UniProtKB/TrEMBL annotation:
InterPro entries: Insect_Ionotropic_Sensory_Rcpt
Domain of life: Eukaryota
Keyword Plastid found: no
Topology class, membrane: Multi-pass membrane protein
Protein name: Ionotropic glutamate receptor C-terminal domain-containing protein
Length: 232
């Protein structure tokens, strides 16, 4: 609003504009299979396999059993009690290690089957920028907001929808839309709201010249402001 007039009453709370962006996509089957362990754990397992194969190639007679098959599946060519001490120690260490790894892997995999994991959601404007995501605006020109420089585009529809694009809009409206999308099948895609506000403005309520509600609404706004309500 360019200037004040006697028929415009300002609100007691700032109008907050936030960004809503689609939740990360569901992981593929192969991504789910690899997700239970971090890269360092997979590297350790691969290192054990490679090291064992190198030792087996250099000294094939060192172990009478295939220790990896013994640790993973319990297969043995010769009873472990009859093997050499070094084979017993190595086999016991591998059995304990792979048993713990299998238990941890299976527990995480079952939890992923119960609820399919997603790619991590964007949590900030910087993460949106790193992912080269365009932010769409509708009711007001957001191009002058510095933090969104170079990543905004006008949204031509009359009303916003959770249809796969990232949008900036009134936070209260986004929360309401998200509530419907989360609880009504087919209403819209799953979205996440960024915690930071990209823009704030004072809302104004305009009444007619002869409206009887102007003074009453103005007094109400003043009393709410003086009472200091929780506005977050």
């Amino acid at each position: 609003m360019a200037q004040y007039d006697k028929f415009a009453i300002s609100g007691v709370a700032m109008e907050q504009f936030a960004i809503a962006t689609p939740k990360g996509r569901l992981l593929t089957v192969w991504e789910i299979m690899l997700k239970p362990f971090q890269l360092s754990a997979w590297g350790m397992i691969l290192g054990i396999l490679v090291t064992y194969q190198i030792i087996h190639q250099l000294k094939p007679a060192l172990f009478s059993n295939n220790l990896l098959a013994l640790a993973l599946f319990g297969f043995d060519k010769r009873q472990l009690v009859l093997s050499k001490s070094i084979e017993k120690i190595t086999a016991c260490a591998l059995i304990v290690l792979f048993f713990q790894l299998k238990c941890a892997y299976e527990a995480k995999l079952v939890s992923y089957i119960t609820e399919t994991p997603r790619v991590p959601d964007a949590k900030s404007v910087e993460e949106l920028r790193e992912r080269n995501i365009t932010v769409h605006y509708r009711n007001f020109d957001i191009t002058l907001v510095h933090k969104l420089n170079g990543m905004v585009k006008f949204y031509g529809k009359n009303q916003f929808e959770f249809d796969g694009i990232t949008i900036v809009e009134n936070r209260a409206a986004l929360i309401t839309e998200k509530l419907f999308a989360d609880n009504m099948d087919g209403y819209g895609m799953q979205y996440t709201l960024l915690s930071e506000n990209v823009y704030e403005a004072i809302p104004f309520y305009v009444f007619g010249a002869k409206s009887l509600l102007v003074n009453r609404f103005h007094n109400f706004q003043q009393r709410v402001f003086e009472a200091g309500p929780e506005l977050d």
